[in-house]
Write a structure and sequence with these properties.
The protein has helices at 11-20, 36-57, 294-306, 322-329, 333-339, and strands spanning 27-31, 58-68, 77-82, 93-95, 100-102, 107-112, 118-123, 138-140, 143-145, 149-154, 157-163, 166-167, 169-174, 182-184, 188-191, 196-199, 204-217, 222-225, 229-232, 240-253, 256-271, 277-291, 309-311, 315-320, 347-352, 359-362, 371-381, 387-397. The protein is an alpha+beta fold. The chain has a domain at 143-306: Beta-galactosidase, Chain A, domain 5 (Distorted Sandwich), CATH 2.70.98. The chain is elongated, with a radius of gyration of 29 Å. The N and C termini lie far apart (58 Å).
Amino acid sequence: MSKGQSMNIDWTVGLALFLTAFISAIVIFVNTHAATSDISDLRNSALDIQDSLEEEVSIEVTELPILVTEGYEIEGVPLHQEYSFPDGERPGSVLMSSPVQLTDENEFVTVIDTQDTYSIFFFEEDSGTEHSLENDITTDETRYSNSYLDVEFGGNGLVSLESFEKEFLSDGADLGYEGYSVEENDVFAVEQNTDLRIYNSSQEMILNDAENVVFSLEEFGTLYWHEENEIDLREEPSETVIEGDTKGISLSENGLGITFVGRLEDASLVKNDDSTLELSFSSDKARIRTHQTEEKGIERIGLYESGDIGLGAGQRYTIPHRLGIEQLDQANETELESRLDINTNLGYNISFGEPLTGLSRGEEPLNVPDVVLSERSSLKLVENGTFQEVDSRVFVWQ
């Protein structure tokens, strides 16, 4: 599959935009010779229609910020997190500036770059949003890959793990299972028995519920064990190099490396006679990441140890949306006047958004002496989880 992503937005800016969406100035233009009371009636009619217009084209949306508590600049970090929806309801759709997926387990799944901030938006009702999530994952019965990783299953786990044109396994990895079932989703792929997951455009995998797993690794010259710092493996004898609980293990050779982060319990690294390595551990959730510099592995452990990536508190808003605009624009004249509570004795012209993509109904107010225009600016939420400024205009006349 040929796949890609769109641009990011800043959560604090997005929040400010939401809060000002319906508080923008209202401008009334009058060119009339009519009585003051008639102009006041027209003015009130224009404002009432504008209020009804905004209500009809808007939808309730909840914004969830993704918060990173440390400023590590690490690319492609999978976020795979549960979220409790209000009143147990599932949203009709989700939007984000990067591909985001909602699983049957009420989990958000996406991949982020931690130097940025993001927001996820979801709707309690069907927003009519059609997902066309793009990813770089390919799969077959015993294999999956993305633009960074190529993983092959066999034996009791893995028979191959390639990244940056290097094979990282010397004799596979024992993950405690035989038989394989690879399933591809929009943002990730998973092998069902081992629960090893690969993610869109990410060099990081997540291994869930790992119990006494063993990775037989190629030769690496440098070990970084988080609690013991750096160890030169070339000077270590062929025996158990180090063991115990740790939050991170990073191995590197000539820049290329592999890092394991998480609550790694009963971890042990053994150097074999041929200088290959055996790494064993147990963990409820282990992250496995390949990288092209030793520093990136150490930095990834630091993000896990002292930082955090998670979802903030949800905020609910009412904001214009494409679906509401399209539905109102397709209404016939009688339905439109009923939904916007328009006095049929008045002439009117109503527009919302751009001429080709928004709503435009009614006659042009040409050669009409008594006209009132109500004009507002607001923000529309578009399909990639960003905002677009739009103007709405309501002309009314006798």
